[in-house]
Amino acid sequence: MDYFLELLIGGLTRGSIYALIALGYTMVYGIIELINFAHGEIYMIGAFTALIIASVLTMAGMSGLSVLILASVVAVIYASAYGFTVEKIAYKPLRQAQRLSPLISAIGMSIFLQNYVLIAQTSDFLPFPSLLPELPFMDAYAQFMGSSELIIVATTAVMTIILTLFIKFTKMGKAMRATAQDRNMAMLLGVNVNRVISNTFIIGSALAAVGGILIASHIGRINFYIGFIAGIKAFTAAVLGGIGSIPGAVLGGLILGWTESFATGYVSSDYEDVFAFALLVLILIFRPAGLLGKSTVQKV
Amino acid sequence: MKHITALKNSLLISFWFMFLTFPIMVIRVNTIENVVEWRWMNMLYVGFGSFVLSFVWRYLISRKEAGVKQAAAADTPSKRLTERLLTDSAFYRPVQIMAAVFFLAFPLIFSTYQINIMTTALMYVMLGLGLNIVVGLAGLLDLGYVAFYAVGAYSYALLNHHFGLGFWAILPVGAILGALFGILLGFPVLRLRGDYLAIVTLGFGEIIRLILENWNEFSFGPSGIANIDRPGFFNIDLSLEQVTVYLYYLVIGLCLFTMVVVNRLKDSRIGRAWVALREDEIACQAMGIDKTKTKLTAFALGATWAGMAGVVFAAKTTFVNPASFTFMESAMFLSIVVLGGMGSITGVIIGAMILILTPEYLRAFSSYRMLLFGAVMVLMMVFRPQGIIAGVRRMYHFPVKQSEKGIGGS
Q1: Has the ipTM of the complex gone over 0.95?
Q2: Do residues A231 and B206 touch, judged by C-beta distance below 8 A?
Q3: Which residue of B has its CA nearest to A92?
Q4: What's the CATH class of domain B92-383?
Q5: pLDDT score recorded for residue B87
Q6: Domain of A233, in residue numbers
Q7: A280 and B203 in contact by Cβ < 8 A?
Q8: Using CA atoms, how far apart are residues B380 and B339, in angstroms rounded to an integer?
Q9: What pLDDT band is residue B408 in, cutting at 50, 70 and 90?
Q10: Do A99 and B189 touch (CB under 8 A)?
Q11: pLDDT of amino acid B75
């Protein structure tokens, strides 16, 4: 039973991170129908920026919570800036192009960003400082759930709620929903579609950066390649839940997290990634619209 | 005034990029010795580079927009130079003959090292042409093409290791196994559209690699299989140099075979069905084309060449391990097709030559290779989505009679 609980919590933590990244995928796909392959790289750049800033601050003599907050804020700003720039360079000129073009451009961007970090920084794994604070009241539950796990799950929950409220009640959120529904119509009604798309990328990137910081300080090491696998898995989560749907992304992230956690715990740990990919293939075959997605009829 | 705004914009862009690349380009932290390295020069380079590039970017965008307008204004698009080179036999025959002479004489002129590099490049031509069927002709974005390459390589490695079978016996087996895996992947993804297809094929490629890495009893795990036999030549023992030359001609032969087959397929009934599928799936079905069959043949035939190239790869390097079959290889195949021109045979050949030979001969930037691949993919899509050499569609011209001109004269 203890083992089961451990796996359950492990899956929950993992799934929360997937959900955070998946939200970015789902929002971008909802609005411009593009799989933003570079999204995983944004997450990686977020983690790298946090690592660099945190190290510099620590060496300058700061410590504790102030390092965490400063590093996170800078990382989120930078990740958003990268997301914004990537959209302007690689996707915006291709709005009217064939479907395949932006996709290839996205893959190119992802390869470019990976190698940019590889060349400018290093190909080795870097140790990531454990920025997340230890919560004393968690000691009693330490065998199931550490403080960093609790923080990850709580942050994801808070972020999702804020995002949902943002999309439901603010003017920008309304504009986003309108653009997702029908871009041309939204444009006719005076929505600045370019700004909406930029904002979507900025918000998605910020969420990815938060995910990057959380998982990096939980696992404790990063390299330039972490974005690739995390990106694909988060995409799986987004598809699993129904791409374009925000609760779907969270649900998908959690299901994927649990699947991986239980499969590696009870079956074999060598095939961790195989389970995720197999799950992706199975969903796409049997329920391409995802669990919470609406299947749409293609109109001519 | 126009120039001043352009200058201002470029300055802003260069400041933006200096800001953007600041933590990653300038700061490097050594966490072991607790030292921070500040590389301020990099910031200068980024600033200057993005300043210059923003002008180039703006110029290219304006040219592209002008091109679109021009094409819209002109009723019949005038034949471009590249197009003329490809369609007019007076132009392309001499080039073809020169290329043929060059490739046939290559081993006589250059060293073994050069021949080895050229053989690799030609292998990539084969792979590019195979992927071209799937991506260029049928418009199915396959990001797991490396899986079929791995299937070919491992089928030779394993059958040779366990049963001592030779190269020529395995070549067709590798091709058939590749095709079978192509169909195996093709079936589940039949219903998927472009972007979902891309991600599933990517997942498939990773699954194959992970299985090869972890299933030690079957594939000998990450350490791979060594001492694979080189291809035999009528039971004659060849020296290492002779084998290199022999492999070179063998790959040339396979390349020619591929080119002939792909060229014939392109204009065949099935090839036209692929192009129709690429252009519009619904219209294609409405015309009575069997979507399932068309997609499956595209996957199977594409995978066949990858399987064959895999067998050649195993025979050439005499060693295979899963590390040779990562996603980066798939990305490389894709950039060959994209750079060269989707759907164009000449384009793919030129693309493979550029992407494989340039890094070999310009060692100085070999570490920037993948960075440039990524950049090339983005820039090609933005500025020249049809590639260096666009695929030319065969057109049938009917002489319009004078009396009919008024009715159907578009």
Answers
A1: no
A2: no
A3: B382
A4: mainly alpha
A5: 63
A6: 2-286
A7: yes
A8: 7
A9: very low
A10: no
A11: 47
